[in-house]
Amino acid sequence: MQLLKNVLWATDFSNEAKSALLYADLLARKFEARLTALHVIPDFSPLLYDLSTELASEMMSKLENSKVSGRKQIEHICQDQAICPSSVVVKTGPASKVIVDTAIEEKADLIVVGRTGTGGPEKSPIGSVAHKLLRTSPVPILVVKKIDGKAAISKILVPTDFGDEENIERDFAWKIARKMEASLTFLYVLELFGHDFRLTDEMFESALKKLKAKRKREHVDVEIDEAVTRAFNASDGIIDFSEQKDFDLIVMSSVVKKVPRIFLGSTTEKVIMHSRLPVLAIPPRFE
User: Is 37 within 8 Å of 84 (Cβ atoms)?
Assistant: First the structure.
């Protein structure tokens, strides 16, 4: 079964959203999937009830103009980057809710967004829309930071804590690696905080043996590797290892160790916030 049949790129016209388009297009082309472009305009209709007929009419006119302008901006960005989406959708409403609803309506297999965009707090390292999507979307989300140059995926990192529920993201990452002809590395971070440092070497060796024992498959057409690294916390270990080894993509669950989604796995969120790499977050119970 094909992993990606429809990729949804949601844009607010920020620089990070433009970078996200490069990854959306790359994956859509590799998987021969549809590429749907979406822009969401805030819905001011509840305010119209408190306005005079003349002002309400003016607001409605501006809203319609914004829709036309939004579509033209998408077309201009795509033309500028020589990318041709299968369809362009402009809607009104709360951005994160509309994106999720559109993903479901369009039967999208992946949502691709910029990390901060223009709608989040000025100093926030992750935008409010991406933040809400990570908590509510039933569809995997690729969160992209602004990049210089072209999108590329040749080395994929998959953090692991040996949980059985990780089979879903392992399989997702494997299918991307196979299609992209990329290598795949499973990483276990041995957290030192709270441990007796005298036991570190023993724990390190034990973790490495356990990771190798849980290796599910041997595939001759994909380079697969395992690694264990030491760090004071998992997020720092993942970020440092991924950047030192020049990975292109991190694939991980949006929930860590069955933490309720309202809290969002802190490891995943910190990696998205501070890593320079795109992070593909898989929601729980995703099939």
Answer: no
Q: How many CB atoms lie within 10 A of CB 1?
A: 4
pTM, rounded to two decimals: 0.84
How far apart (Å, rounded) are the C-alpha atoms in residues 269 and 282?
12
In the block, residue with structure tokens 């041997």: 218
Rounded CA Rg of the chain: 21
CA distances from 176 to 2, 4, 133, 180, 192 (A): 10, 9, 21, 6, 32
| Strand boundaries in the chain, DSSP class E | 6-11, 34-41, 87-92, 110-114, 141-144, 155-159, 183-191, 224-231, 249-253, 279-282
Q: Given the DSSP bridges, would you call strands 183-191 and 155-159 parallel, antiparallel or unpaired?
A: parallel
Side-chain-facing half-sphere of 84: CA atoms under 13 Å: 1
pLDDT along the chain (287 residues), means of 10: 92 92 96 95 61 57 70 85 90 91 95 75 64 90 92 93 73 89 88 61 66 55 81 90 96 63 65 94 76
Tokens of 65: 């103009």
Give the largest CA-CA distance in the chain. 76
Indicate the fold that domain 6-144 takes in CATH.
Rossmann fold (3.40.50)
Which of the following CATH numbers is that of domain 155-282: 3.40.50.300, 3.40.190.10, 2.60.40.60, 3.40.50.620? 3.40.50.620
Helix (H) or strand (E) holding 101: helix 95-105
Burial grade of 134 (CB within 10 A; 0-12, 13-18, 19 or more): buried
The boundaries of every CATH 3.40.50.620 domain in the chain are 6-144, 155-282
